[in-house]
């Protein structure tokens, strides 16, 4: 349809000629109320933003020669972060001669990954970058747990 004819139809119906698909050949237009079109598109954009999930990366720093109690405390923090649905970046900081023994850090990261395997999976394998070795853990997708129905209480009369 010619543009002039479409504009005349829009004026007769007291509506606007709105271009819906500009990239199409020929361009696709509709007769509609432009204010309503803008409002509906804003509502769709707002709804899509609401459904987006914000990913937060928490960081936990360790040392290669960490004591068992300190390790348990750090592991408890990692578990708390994963249960909260956050990704965890575990960093092992090497100092001095520790840098010549990266296998200590690798073993520690593997141990941590095995300890929290039921809550999270390794998203980025341990890798050395300078004085630090990093690994990223992502939370497992939460399986829907069927909730047991609460027993109904009987009234005593």
TrEMBL record:
Residues 1-47 form the Translation initiation factor 3 N-terminal domain. It is found in: Cytoplasm. Residues 138-151 have a biased composition (Low complexity). The keyword Protein biosynthesis applies. One of its GO terms (biological process) is ribosome disassembly. Residues 56-140 form the Translation initiation factor 3 C-terminal domain. InterPro entries: T_IF-3_C_sf, T_IF-3_N_sf, Translation_initiation_fac3_CS, Translation_initiation_fac_3, Translation_initiation_fac_3_C, Translation_initiation_fac_3_N. GO terms for molecular function: ribosome binding; translation initiation factor activity. Keywords: Cytoplasm, Initiation factor, Protein biosynthesis. Residues 130-157 are annotated as: Disordered. GO terms for cellular component: cytosol; membrane. It comes from the Bacteria. Belongs to the IF-3 family. IF-3 binds to the 30S ribosomal subunit and shifts the equilibrium between 70S ribosomes and their 50S and 30S subunits in favor of the free subunits, thus enhancing the availability of 30S subunits on which protein synthesis initiation begins. This is Translation initiation factor IF-3. It comes from Pseudonocardia asaccharolytica DSM 44247 = NBRC 16224.
């Amino acid at each position: 349809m010619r543009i002039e004819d479409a504009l005349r139809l829009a004026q007769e119906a007291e509506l606007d000629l709105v271009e819906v698909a500009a990239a199409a050949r020929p361009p696709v237009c509709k007769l509609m109320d432009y204010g309503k079109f803008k409002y509906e598109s804003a509502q769709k954009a707002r709804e899509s933003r609401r459904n987006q999930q914000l990913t937060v990366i928490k960081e936990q720093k360790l040392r290669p020669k960490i004591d068992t109690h300190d390790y348990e405390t750090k592991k408890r923090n990692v578990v708390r972060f994963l249960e909260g649905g956050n990704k965890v970046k575990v960093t092992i900081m090497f100092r001095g001669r520790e840098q010549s023994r990266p296998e200590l850090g690798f073993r520690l990261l593997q141990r941590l990954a095995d300890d929290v395997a039921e809550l999270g999976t390794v998203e980025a394998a341990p890798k050395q970058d300078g004085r630090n070795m990093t690994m990223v853990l992502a939370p497992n997708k939460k399986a829907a747990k069927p909730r047991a129905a609460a027993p109904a209480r009987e009234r005593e009369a």
